[in-house]
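Sequence in, structure out.
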Amino acid sequence: MIDTMEHGVPVNADGISCAARRFSRLRLWRAAILVALIAACLRAALLAWFCADAKLSLASVFAGHDGGEYLRFAQALANFDPAAIPADARRHDAGWPALIALFSWAAPLWAAAMGLITGGFAVMAAAFMRILERHATIKPRRCWLAALILLAGYPSYVYFACFALGETAFVALLLLALAAYLGGLRALAYALAGLCAAIRSPGIFLAAAFCLNDLVVYGRGGWRKCLSAPLALIPPLAWMLISHRCWNATAAATLELRMGWPFSGFRGFAETGLFRTIYVFLCVIFSVAGVALLALEASRARWSDPFLNTGTFYCLLYLLLHFCIRSFRNMEAVQYPFSYMDRYMIGVLPFVIYGWRRLLLRPGVVAAAVSASLALAAWWGHHYFAALAIAG
């Protein structure tokens, strides 16, 4: 929107010329697409390695881990028959399978999922860079490093993004909702947070963080800015009603989630190997320390910065929930969440990267993180598909 004219040049209220802003947006999208292409090429190389090493088709590889369950879930939704969702897939939230089903008319389910994940890379990079540049005072030259380490510098995300899993969609919607909220588009932000919660239930904590920030920053008048918050409840509640009607149980009931004291689920470390245990603990320590740095910054800013406040509130709620999970049922077996903690930490990764930005946003560090992530992902994939071959 043009507010004034200076020397015949249209200028916005913040003193930035419209031409300069258009150039900034164009530069941001070019950088985001470049980062997304790098991430997509790295995933393509990993998928090619998995296919060659395991002698499997691309569709079979992409259905690895929980990917096959999500694809069967999506097939039932594409056929407009929620009751046909396989029993082993009902523990998942419906948002990601619904998104795959939405695009199943254009390609096979696995290819639709792959296309969505690849497009999600660009959305994640663009939204993250925009937030950092406009609301976190990070120089543009360092924003692309932050986006690159988000997409290709965390080993667990690099690995799991090679399968038909919902982490990419979750983080992309999380960042879009945050960008909308920081831009003053509260109704859109809450609606996107609701879609994020449909992908993974803890996404609802982002809507709670929006409300908490408004109450902290605006005091008693903050509740008026939260009037759009119920929009975030519509997608998860709608699926809860549909699932209860179709098979008389919700996803949470199917999962049989058991809660306990913080870190009660970490007893599962005894069931994992030494290297895996060390890696998961390092991921948890890295994430908790990054959130602590974020909270420290918010405190130093006297809780007046919406970006720092929202990130801190969301991360604290998200981590508290996952650390308090004692056990859950997966494929008729009771499991502890410890071995999944590195994957759970993907949900707070953008904020953790910001907390560690002084250490991470250096070309040498980013290159080392990307290289280590590729090596670990290739190694994990080799052993995973080898174990599948042995199991038959």
